[in-house]
Amino acid sequence: MYHFIxxxxxxxxxxxDTWNTIERVLVDKNVDYQVYETKYQRHATAISRKITEQEGxxxxxxxxxxxxxxxxxxxxxxxxxxxxxxxxxxxxxxFARGLSLSQNPLEALAGILNxxxxxxxxxxxxxxxxxxxxxxxVSSGLGFDAAVCHQIVVSxxxxxFNKIKLGxxxxxxxALQQLIKAKPSSxxxxxxxxxxxxxxxxxxxxxxxxxxxxxxxxxxxxxxxDSILNIVIAHNxxxxxxxxxLPLAYRGLHTHFKGIxxxxxxxxxxxxxxxxxxxxxxxxxxxxxxxxxxxxxxxxRVVKR
Length: 305
Known about the structure:
alpha+beta, 32% helix, 2 domains, Rossmann fold, Tumour Suppressor Smad4, 9 helices
């Protein structure tokens, strides 16, 4: 049995059209499946929780964007009893990009139905506020990158660029807007017990995969199953220099410049002098000035091809 969790509103309605195409293939091939369409924020979490509370191994297929994957993963009862398939139809698709998954829906479906390779991936956990926790697969952080994620949720740019099939340009447009408004903060960052103070930090992100924000290769050396997080810190950078570095980040070349620091570790605590936006896989969380980031003890299997 395949459990398809579908976000019909992904990429401004493309989700529904893509599901209709995929369902015709499933019917033609006489595949045993159940479909669940998400109807509200974090509905996918409730759906995946209900599925995975049952005994046995569960094949869950996500049709949506990084946010839908995040919701599904946050609902999984036992990571080791799930095989996750993904048909990427979001605006950024950093989860698919980071794992080199096919972004062609029918190719992705073919690999899911006849898998040749499944990869175990680490799953991150962020703690914040009054003992609140959320999982993430791609990245989690606070500051500028999270502010972009917060704004993209309400921006009309995303809808416009999705309609002309250039969704990731919305992230670039919003990034420019947020850069102008950004107010860097001092941060203390503790990695595996060692604390370093950074001044004028634009953002600090714990990366599980190489990409975030619609294709920015912020952490070129990140490996999804090495049980290590890459912590990317942008600090002491004039805004003009940041503007010049952002295009380089699409190829990971920003890391050669002063003001970009990358640490590696398993247990990260980030303290900011002022409350800042937080995100998990692009999903916004309200302002906080402290986060604790680590990894789940179990891995999640993802169908690669």
